[in-house]
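Quick note —
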Amino acid sequence: MSPSSIFPPEIYDKIIDEVAPSKDVLSACSLVQRSWVPRSRTHMFHNVDFKVHTSPELDKRSSTKYTAAFQQHVASNSTVASYAHHLVLTLSNGENSASEIPQTSQLLNLRSLTLKCSHSIIYSVNDATLTRLLSFIRRNKKLQTISLQSVVIDPSAFDVFVACIAIRAPGLRSLHLHAIWAHDWVTDAWNRRRAVQGEFSYKSLSLERLCVSNCEEGVIPAFLRAYDLQRLERLALMALDWDSCVKMIATTMNVESLTHITLDLSSCKKFDNSLLHEEALFCRLSTIPTLQLILKQANDSPTVLQKLYCSALHPQPLLGHLHLQFQRLPYSGDTMVDKALWELCSLIPSLRVSVGFDQQESSQIARASTVCSRLKVSSLFPSMNRRGNFQLRPLDEWWSSNFAV
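Predicted structure written out below.
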């Protein structure tokens, strides 16, 4: 008797779903009965990752040959390619970079696209690389995650890129823009673009997670012309100037869905001269359930915490978890952080606090006054330790895991 005739097909489907984590069992199921193959294959290849890496050091002929081999591989493995959910492309900085973006005929179910552009230059709206990229995005309407990294781009071309993903990727949930900048020759174009106040006739409402890191000032205004943030849940602003941070957070004042903000203040040499802007920003931060602040060193935190304290006095603060991430290890005399945190917690008794430190250079660790061990770091927070709801933990880099493949 055929195995498939003993029980209804739904029973076998549920059994296959249960054994999905084991590829060996899935392979065995595929051998037992041909009708089980589609269900097993769905689990077997549901997370196939394609990584196309063409090193900038390769000459043009080698790079083209490598890319052609990938294109041929995808074409000859159309079944597996149709199950691929993630695609990572590392484009070379050369004339043939456009040809390194694959055709989409077999990649039908991509959910995530990561573009590492190796500082590729997109000169204009008509650039061949941009044209090929936009064509790729238009044909992959199931994309939920896009990460664009390390590209030098003309402002008009970036506007077109943002408008394209807003319109052609209606299911986009997560966007990461990293190291999008311009050489001196295009700086004036960025300045002119910043002055443009025009809006797109269409604004996407799909975005839930956004990370902008180490980008030109003109990137955020261009993004805001194409996207409405009313459904945004997580926001990370890394290595940006103070004005860019203020501009972005100001657009979220009425976004009730926003529950998680990561704000990097380590590169801000000074805050805005306008006390009104500064007060509005910290008032907004006090209403976010989870707030992560990145600072250069421990003695920078009392000033920031005092501003957060003053802001929490006005509205009913919703801040539930505050994480402070320091780029430098503390010294034995850094006790002001503990005092400032204690004062903030006296205002918000339910507040949970965590602290983390980045890995340090050996020269700094070698200093006798530097506190290195976890136990010694914890001893710098006696008041917070007595209070409870305090822990040492790393920064929640959700943008890394979200876009990692």
